[in-house]
Every structure is written in C-alpha cells, then in structure tokens.
Amino acid sequence: MLEQRYRWKNKHLREHIDVLDGKRPPDIMLKDAVYLNQVLRKWMTANIWIYDDRIVYVGEKLPENLAGCEIVDCTGRYLVPGYIEPHSHPFQLYNPLTLSRYASNFGTTTLINDNLVLFLQLEKKKAFSLLGELRNIPATMYWWCRFDSQSEIQNEELIFSHGEVKSWLEHDAVLQGGELTGWPRLLAGDDMLLHWMQEAKRMRKQIEGHFPGASEKTLAKMMLFGADADHEAMTGKEVMDRLMQGYTVSLRHSSIRPDLPKLLDDIQELGIQHFDKFLFTTDGSPPAFYEEGLTDNMIRMAIEKGIPVIDAYNMATINVARYYNFEYLHGNIATGRVANINFLEDVKNPTPVSVLAKGKWVKRDGVESKEYAEIKWGDYGFEPLKLDFDIGAGDLEFSMPFGIEMVNDVITKPYSITSDVSYDELSFGHDECFFMMVDAAGKWRINTIIKGFANKLCGFASSYSSTGDIILIGKRREDIITAFKRMKEIGGGIVMTEHGKVIYELPLTMKGVMTNEPVRKLIGKEKELKGLLQERGYPFSDPVYSLLFFSSTHLPYIRVTPQGMYDVMNKTVLFPTIMR
C-alpha cells in the first residue's frame, strides 16, 4: 500500500532546478561550511544551498538569486549529516513525536521505528494515517514490520495475519521486516514466517535479527533464511561471529545493555580496522537513559576509544543509509539529499549546537525551537485507557505452587513458593510480593508470586506492558486495589500506593502505554519512580524494562502472558489464564 510513491513530485524537482538556474533563491545558504565529505573521507569547505527540505547544491558557487535567502556564516563550525537511529522503540513512556523532538536536539534526525505498539493497539487504517501525518514533522521516520507479538497473546494468528503483515511490508515507510524475536519458530519449521521474510526480500527490504547468544551455526542458518543484521552481540567474539557470517552489526548501548565501551575495546583488540559494517543503536531505552544524549553519546564514546573520527560519524550516518539503501536521501551532505545537518563546535564533540532537520532549524546556537508539529493523538485511537471493570478481593487469590523470581532487570525464572500467601498482607521481611496480570478488557487474569522485585512495596499498578495488559504488584492486597482504582481514574499509567495513599503516579493517557509529556519531564518522573522503588527494595536499575518484559517471550525463562504462565525454553503454557 504505497502512500507516497515519490518523495518529491515533478513540480518540486523543477523548483529545485530553478534554484540552480537563479530563477528562485535558496531558502538557506550555508557559507564557507567545513563539512564531512564521506566519499572522499575528509573535511572539505563548500557553500551549501538548501531549498525547502533538500540540499540542492554543494560546492564553490554562490547563488545568483539571494532574495530573501537566509545566509549563515559557518566559520568556526563543522557540519556532519544528521544522525540515524536504526533500531528505535518509540513507545517507552514517550511517544514517536516527543521522542523525535527530543532526539533531534541531540542531532538524531532520522529514526527507524518498531511498529509493534501500532500493530497491537490500532487498526491498520488509523495506523497508516498516523504514519502519513508523521511525515510532516521535522524529524524523518521510517518503520519496521513485526512478524510476531513478542509474547504469547490470544488469537495471534488473527492479529498477525498474512494480509496484515503483507500490508505493512508494502508500505513505503517500512524499510525492514523484524526484529525477529520469534526466530525459534522459524528454525522449528514456521513457513508463514519464512514466507514473510521472502516477501520482504522480494521488496528489497532488510531483515533485522534478534539473536542473543546464538551459536555460529544458528547465525549461519538465519543468514541463509534471509537475516541481514543483528544488534545482540555482547562481546567482541560475538561481533566477529556475526561479521564472519556476513551480518551488518549494530553496536548497542542501552539501559539494560550498556555494552558499547566493552565492544569497542574488544573489536580493536581483535584487530578489526574497517568499520563499514557497523551501526550504532540505543535500542529504545527509557527516558532517563537519554538525559545526556542519544546517538551523539555513542559517537563520542567511539572517538574516545580510539575509533577514527570519520568512522565514528559514519557508523551513525552513511553506514546506516547504505545498509537501508537510502543513501540517495540520507546519511551524507551532498546534492539531492534531505537537509538534515548537524553543526558542531569541535569534530570530537558530536553533540550539535545547531540542527537542521528537513531544512528547518530545530536547534539554533544551543536553543531548541519552540515550533514543532502537534498531533491529535485521539484521532488515531490513542485516547485515555477506559477500563469497564474493577478489581476486588475475589480477584486477588494466590494458589499457584510456583512463582517467578527476578534474576536481573528483565530475566525471570521459576521458583517454588514455600511461604503462606493466604494473608491480606505479606511480610516486609522477605522479597516476595503478590503479582497479578489482568486483561485490559477484564476477561481474564493470572495470579502468582514474584520474588526479587521489592520487599517493602505496598501497592503498584501499571498499564504499561508489552501486551497492553495490566500488571499489579504489592505486599498489601488493599493497596493493590487502591493502586488499580487510581490507575483507572487517570486513564492508564503507573501508580504506587502505601497504606491507602497514592505516593506516585505517572498518567499514560495514550492507551495506557504512552504520554504526550516532553521527554525532559519524563526523565524526572522516571527517576522518581526508580528512586521510590529502590527505597522499597527494587534491586535493579531499569523498572521500565522490567514492566515491559514480564510478558516478553523472547527472553528466558518464565513469562506471564495473556495465555498464562509460559515456559520459554520448552514453549509450553504451564498454567493457563483464569477467566473472570
């Protein structure tokens, strides 16, 4: 379903030619700009003409017609292409618009986004209309097409039907299939998944892997199936294994896998000196992780670790553009490209002082632009969560013989419940809490005990989860009910209660999973959440991802899903959900 066959229509291209011929002035002329020329791999000086959202000329010439043209003296600045995030999850409390606005001020002007939340939360027509409106913001957005839910949801075969997946793959804003969190199904003989991969390849689109801990043989098999890249390497050896099998490797630095410094050390110790097959990704981290920047921080780390400066910038720009086959639009400063340009004070400081995105100033001399598109999210179905049911004492029954124990922020394993959990309140002397997941439509629930999440948490409710269902945790049943009621009142979100009082709330009024608050405000709210949880015994660093991954079956070992307690390694539902 092609929404826009050409980026520029014929009349626009004629206007661009008119600028070169002096019949029209450029909108902006960057004079005496020292810029990174990635073809020649050196810094060069040129005049850069910009008309609307496009670079129409790079060279020594000056425009014949300068009527109304903004002339920018670039003395003392170094220009590099806008950075590209190749693996974004733009739904981590923030939404695609608020994330892109924040990211562009740090120079990341293009994002290639996960579509999972759109797939699960919106009908296709509204989702595609939203993609169309997001074309109009200063940042550039492309998308993936998921092939599975990353969990065990009910009626998945109807949601991820052939028709739905194929429609997404055909959309011109979609650049790749994946990420392949369901790859074990592929190895087990799932021919529908393989067919979708074949379709993506037929359309000249890439396939993004998700292969943590994969052996050399598995990596080879997945390459034969059609995978092109993977972002799950955690050591230099794993990087090398992927390179040897022909993969493009995204080096990751995220809130739960801050691996980049080690990876950079490892690959240099292994003697790797060519970096054309490397990209950078922050892998959809929560807001607080981005407090000091995004891709710009990764470039900085690379430079500080001894990666040649030009290669460090290339991994965030031209390498990504070449991988996704859109070098003619992005990733370099050259005639015909989209005018995404970062202005630096120093080549070793990749955080820009000024940023052009689609030829518009989103940051100028350190000051963020106040002019940014707004979206009426309610028009696309992202309204406050409306729950037409209540949670009562009868729902909070806990009789399962085993629970889930947290190994780290996101890994959970089974454990045998030995304490008496029949009381209305559990002891603060241990780290076991009541845990319940309930369907957002109120049709089913599953109850167990969670160990290792907290030891003094009274009540907690979250509509933020990977499946959009409700998570309830706590020591006191009464406080759990209070937290749920407040979360319901505010239209979805995260609520913490203590002895009948609400001590924290974060409204997520976009389907209960996102907010329209600016990322800078979210950073403070996330820090507050983490601080309150840690005071109550949460021993890890990333509660946002803990909540997100309770139901995500691409991680071991035990998960709470809409189908029930799920054994990931044996692909078995151990205890089904209970109908309410």
TrEMBL record:
Q: Where would I find the Amidohydrolase-related domain in this sequence?
A: 78-362
Q: Which family does it belong to?
A: Belongs to the metallo-dependent hydrolases superfamily. Adenine deaminase family.
What EC number(s) does the entry state?
A: 3.5.4.2
Q: Establish whether keyword Hydrolase is in the entry.
A: yes
Against InterPro entries, the record matches this protein to: Adenine_deam_C, Amidohydro-rel, Metal-dep_hydrolase_composite, Metal_Hydrolase
Pfam families under this entry? Adenine_deam_C (PF13382), Amidohydro_1 (PF01979)
Domain (Adenine deaminase C-terminal) ranges: 410-571
**Under what name is this protein listed?**
adenine deaminase
Q: Which organism is it from?
A: Peribacillus glennii
User: Keywords for this entry?
Assistant: Hydrolase
Q: Which residues form the signal peptide?
A: none
Q: Which reaction does it catalyse?
A: adenine + H2O + H(+) = hypoxanthine + NH4(+)
The answer to keyword Amino-acid biosynthesis applying to this record is no
A GO term for molecular function: adenine deaminase activity
